[in-house]
């Protein structure tokens, strides 16, 4: 006959272990759910999603009238554009975030937040595809090319933003270059001693050059002018130059003074 008192301790042990494990798992799940609920979203709240859902769930009453399908399609297309942009950000950020997680630079909370954002984006993509299928006509399946149209819209917006930035930069550079040109011009005129000319007036380069030449000519002394005039007003003809060359004596090294000649005569 089996003694039941010997079976009571192991049964109680098993019940306690199972109960403690169930309690721990339930508490862990509750804490995890609370942490996920209190976790900040990876992306801010989508305005296009709120607008689409507001238009979709408006009551069908005569006042206001029913929202046409074209408006709903436009709102859904805008929502698809935002979803594609978020999906691109998620795809580009996943690799670097994994590397940071392996190095220990990022905590597990950030990684779980990122995974939750990825799941939300996947669910939103499926929801957009289902809504596009519901709004599509019988002859045209709009769900097949809604994301292609949204990608083209996103590319167009990026190109437009870059063009606007380039226009702003070119305008800034043109203003800077105009100020720089005006500064260099004023410094040059000041160094040459010419009065500064007002901006917007037409300048004659020949007049400026003539003024500079006259300014420099006025700085020449009277002695320099006399010397130049003497050199210019006394030209020599070829005949006069020949006669002058003949009349000038040429000193030779053989000419000796009279004293040396007398000494030679005394010796004889």
From TrEMBL:
Alphabetized UniProt keyword annotations: Membrane, Transmembrane, Transmembrane helix
Pfam families reported in the protein's UniProt record: Sec66
Membrane spanning stretches: 6-28
Region Disordered, annotated ranges: 220-268
GO biological process: post-translational protein targeting to membrane, translocation
Highest rank taxon of the organism: Eukaryota
Annotated Gene Ontology cellular component terms: Sec62/Sec63 complex
Cited InterPro entries: Sec66 (IPR018624)
Compositional bias per record (Low complexity), positions renumbered to this chain: 233-260
PANTHER family for this protein: TRANSLOCATION PROTEIN SEC66
Protein name, entry field: Translocation protein S66
Organism: Orbilia oligospora (Nematode-trapping fungus)
């Amino acid at each position: 006959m089996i003694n039941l008192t010997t079976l009571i301790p192991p049964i109680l042990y098993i019940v306690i272990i199972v109960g403690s494990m169930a309690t721990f798992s339930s508490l862990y799940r509750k804490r995890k759910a609370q942490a996920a609920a209190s976790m900040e979203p990876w992306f801010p709240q989508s305005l296009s999603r709120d607008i689409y859902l507001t238009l979709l769930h408006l009551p069908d009453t005569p006042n206001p009238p029913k929202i046409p399908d074209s408006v709903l399609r436009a709102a859904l297309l805008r929502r698809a554009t935002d979803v594609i942009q978020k999906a691109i950000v998620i795809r580009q950020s996943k690799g670097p975030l994994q590397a940071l997680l392996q190095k220990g630079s990022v905590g597990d909370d950030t990684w779980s937040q990122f995974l939750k954002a990825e799941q939300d984006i996947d669910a939103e993509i499926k929801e957009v595809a289902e809504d596009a299928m519901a709004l599509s006509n019988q002859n045209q399946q709009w769900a097949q090319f809604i994301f292609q149209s949204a990608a083209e819209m996103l590319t167009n917006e990026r190109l437009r933003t870059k063009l606007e930035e380039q226009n702003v930069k070119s305008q800034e550079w043109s203003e800077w270059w105009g100020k720089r040109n005006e500064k260099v011009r004023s410094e040059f005129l000041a160094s040459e001693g010419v009065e500064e000319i007002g901006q917007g007036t037409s300048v004659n380069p020949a007049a400026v050059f003539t003024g500079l030449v006259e300014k420099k000519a006025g700085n020449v002394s009277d002695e320099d002018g006399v010397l130049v005039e003497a050199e210019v007003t006394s030209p020599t003809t070829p005949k006069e130059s020949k006669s002058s060359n003949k009349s000038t004596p040429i000193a030779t090294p053989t000419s000796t003074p009279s004293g040396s000649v007398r000494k030679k005569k005394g010796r004889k």
